[in-house]
Structures are given as structure tokens and as C-alpha cells.
Amino acid sequence: MHVRIRGAIGIAAVAMSLVAAGLVVGQPGVSHAGHGHVYSAEQARAMAEQQAVPGSEFRVTCAASHRGQDDPIVFQNQSGVSHMHEFFGNRTTNAFSTLTSLRAGATNCNPVSDKSAYWVPTLYKNGQPVAPDSVTIYYQGIHDRERAVAHPQGLRYVVGNAKAASAAENPAARWSCTTQSPSSRDFLVCPPGTKVETYLDFPTCWNGRDLDSPNHRDHMAFAVGLVCPPSHPVVVPRLEFLITYPVNGTGLSLGGTRNGVNVTSAPGYTFHGDFMNAWDPAELQRRVRNCINAGYICGTDGNP
């Protein structure tokens, strides 16, 4: 089966300053703490090193479902508080989503056994929102694949730094153009005949206890040297988003929160993504066993 080569940003970029600006203060009485995160130099380096690591995998294809100013992880039960997000996968995702509501909802993903919620900030072209052309979510075994286990039901986490004040502050952001290999943490000016695409890689090490944490990240970690730290010993498949948008050229921006105000003009280096696991447990376990653990490249049917 065809395996796409994914461009990686040079590790040298990780050595740049990782001090966040801390400008997002949010609406009165609302914490934006989960929106920003300063990765340690070690975690940033591990994140960049793993961006092009191949492995066993299965994949899910989804379409854009809806957009809205909700974030059921960072702003749970607070409708309309977040900046604008693009949701794909579960059609019912909103500020009040729970594992129970997602499992009862419908999905536009293939396979339909994946009722997880996935979302990213909305992309804008000259101030107008742009829905993705396509969304592929890879579940990959990039290290210790034989020990990888299925994500537990209800696991949720965030990757990226929505509060980044420079490209150096968000090693997760990765933009490129279709048919071309270079990538950048900020938007590239893609030439006519190409489309903008973005990759987002999630951590692979879980602490084995918590389905969430106060900043929605600390219960997960990136594998340093492709080895999970003792604090996060459980290996889970890497999620990788590949999102393609039907636009190119200039005038691109993201939904974001700057100086406490929700805007549509955030730069590309603030890109981030969220995941709430609501797979059918038996089907997810089958795919992890038959594809990830066994070392195969599988399609949406979960078969080699």
C-alpha cells in the first residue's frame, strides 16, 4: 500500500527560544490555560525528530463536519467561548460533548466505528473560512509497536501552542504545499496548482492513569529517543493529522485568541489540534493488534 512521505522540519529549529509570550488572558472568569503550552527543549526536540519516522499504521478518512466557537476539552460546558474551530469526525461535537454523547452520535469518518471528535482552528483565506478538502488521520506505530495498546475510552488531549508568539514557540506546527516537500511552522505561499496542507503529530506515551490533566497535556508525553519516559510508560499509537485545504497563495490566517480577544487573524505557527477518543473499543483494539502490533500498513478497513 502507498505510504506517503511526510516532510519534516529541521531539528536545528528546535534549538531556538521556547519562551511563550503569555498574552492570551481570555474572557472574564474564563481560563485560557489549556490553549497555550511551552514544550521543554527535550520534548520539542523529540517532537521534531519523530515527524518523519515511518511505522506501521491504519488510517481514518473524515470530512469537515461543522465549525463553531466551542472546545469541549479546554472550555468544557462553556458554549461559544472559544475561538473558531473546524470539527471533523463526530457530527455532534460541541462544548458539552462527553464520551457518552459522542458514542451516541454519528460520524462522517470512514470507518464509522470511529466516533471520536477531532478539531483544529479554522483556516481563513482573506478573512473567509475555508473547509478542508480532505482529512486523513493516521494511527501509527513508530516505536515499541509490539507494546502499543489502544487508546483508552474517553482519553483526550491537545497538541500545539495556540498562544505561540513566534514560530520557535510551536514545534508542532507544520505547513506545506501539495506536490512539494519543504515544510514550515508558518504558512508557505503555495504556488498555483498546489494546495495548502498541514500535518500535526500527537504524543505516543501515556501515564497509564489519567484520561485528562489540568493543562490537557501532562498525562501524555513525546518519546525521547523513541523511548517513553518512566513517568509515561504506556505506548499508544501516534495520531497524525493530514489536512488539505483547497487554497494557495497569500492571505491565510487561523482562528485564535490574541490579547484576550477571539480573532480570525492568528498566524500559522499557532496551529494546534484536539482529540477525544470515542472509538468502538473492540474495533480499535483489532486495528491496533492487526496493524500496529503486527507491523502492517492498513487502510480504512483495518486490514493489511
Short précis:
Helices cover 9% and strands 28% of the residues. With 304 residues, the chain is mostly beta strands.
Task: Classify the secondary structure makeup into a structural class.
Answer: mainly beta
- Biggest sheet character: 6 strands, antiparallel
> Strand order, biggest sheet?
1-7-15-11-9-10
Whole-Å distance between the termini? 8 Å
Net shape = globular
- Mean pLDDT comes to 89
Strand content: 25-35%
Relative helix content: under 10%
Q: How many beta-strand segments?
A: 18
What's the helix-strand series? HEEEHEEEEEEEEEEEEEEEH
Number of helices: 3
Q: How many domains?
A: 1
Low-pLDDT residue intervals, each spanning 5 or more residues: 1-33
What does this structure look like?
It comes from Lentzea roselyniae. Residues 71-279 form the DUF1996 domain. This is DUF1996 domain-containing protein. InterPro entries: DUF1996 (IPR018535). Pfam families: DUF1996 (PF09362). This protein is 9% helix and 28% strand. With 304 residues, the chain is mostly beta strands. The chain has one domain (41-298). The model is unreliable at 1-33 (pLDDT under 50).
